[in-house]
Design goal:
- InterPro entries: GIY-YIG_endonuc_sf (IPR035901).
- This is GIY-YIG nuclease family protein.
- The protein is of the alpha+beta class.
- The protein has a single domain, classed as GIY-YIG endonuclease (3-Layer(aba) Sandwich), CATH 3.40.1440.
- Helices cover 40% and strands 23% of the residues.
- The protein contains three helices and three strands, in the order E-E-H-H-E-H.
- The chain starts with a strand and ends in a 6-residue tail after the last helix.
Length: 100
């Protein structure tokens, strides 16, 4: 069974702070990011500072969109598709779209 891949957001409840990330294993990456935030070791230092200041209850982590695997079983690298998805969501959110 293949892991779900796509894009997710970590954001404050009031949507003032948000970080988009893509992954070929959404569940694994999201679990890893939560653990990093809880232990103070998230790579995005600005997000970590907000987490530390506001607390875990002030944040939401959610999948925005998933990608479907190609019918071509030899395709294993989806990094280009994930990058395009990230750019599309960045544009959508910067133009006033919602992650909710």
């Amino acid at each position: 069974m293949k892991p779900e891949m796509g894009i997710f957001v970590t954001r404050t409840q009031d949507n003032t702070v948000r970080v988009l990330e893509t992954s070929s294993n959404l569940k694994g990456k999201m679990n890893s990011r939560i653990m990093q935030l809880q232990t103070g070791s998230h790579p995005n230092k600005a997000l970590q500072r907000e987490w530390d200041a506001r607390g875990e209850a002030a944040f939401v982590m959610e999948v925005l969109e998933t990608l479907t695997y190609s019918k071509d079983e030899t395709k294993t690298d989806y990094s280009e598709e994930l990058e395009i998805l990230r750019m599309m969501w960045e544009e959508r959110l910067s133009s006033g779209g919602s992650a909710q």
